[in-house]
Amino acid sequence: MDELKELYQQVILDHNRAPRNFGTLEPHTHAAEGDNPLCGDHIDIFINVKDGVIEDIKFSGEGCAISKASASLMTSVLKGKTVEEARKMFEEFHDLVTKDDYLPDFDKLGKLAVFAGVRTFPVRVKCASLAWHTMLQALKEEEQMVSTE
After folding, report:
1. What is the separation, in whole angstroms, between the first and last Cα of the chain?
2. Is the bond into 27 cis (omega within 30 degrees of 0)?
3. Could you tell me the strand order of the sheet in which 53-62 lies?
4. What is the b/e burial string over 76-93, where b = at least 16 CB atoms within 10 angstroms of the residue's CB?
5. The domain spanning residue 6 has which CATH number?
6. In angstroms, rounded to a whole number, what is the distance separating the alpha carbons of residues 7 and 111?
7. Which residue has the higher pLDDT, 1 or 90?
8. Is 57 inside a domain boundary?
């Protein structure tokens, strides 16, 4: 378990210091805004979907290390996936960070599996899942802001 904690810290710090896919995406076909007022995280997700495939995805905003790292990893994982695969990945990630009895499929989740430890800190679950909820909202093409409250 100590190895997982060590990997978790390394991945979080790496993606916080050098987030992948950070910035705006113009033009984009889908976008949404998310907010976690408890922690101060605020994120915008921009997605280009063509023929049901996420061709590009970026995020911008401010947030804690967990929020930023989660958004960075999410955008890296979802690029090139179909919209349906993105929805399934949301479910996998949500189960990973919220269900105590969930056994992660490391082959399916890859580096996202490092977020398994987040579920023991309920306040941090909102930080880790904000980007994912915002991405899902963007794909629904609804204009309502996502909030963790």
Report:
1. 31
2. yes
3. 53-62, 41-50, 30-36, 146-147
4. bbbbebebeebeebbebb
5. 3.90.1010.10
6. 9
7. 90
8. yes
| Token pair of 67 as six digits | 């929020």
92-141: pLDDT as tens digits: 999 999 998 887 777 888 889 888 888 888 889 999 999 999 999 999 98
Residue 72 class from Cβ within 10 Å (0-12 exposed, 13-18 middle, 19+ buried)?
A: buried
Distance CA 27, CA 29 (A): 7
Q: Please state, in angstroms and as integers, the Cα–Cα distance from residue 68 to each residue in 36, 61, 87, 89, following that order.
A: 12, 8, 20, 18
Helix (H) or strand (E) holding 59: strand 53-62
pTM for this entry: 0.91
Q: Which two tokens stand for residue 69?
A: 């790292």
Count how many domains the chain has: 1
Residue 146 lies in a domain: no
- Cβ-in-10-Å burial (0-12, 13-18, 19+) of 59 comes to buried
Which amino acid is present at 144?
A: Q
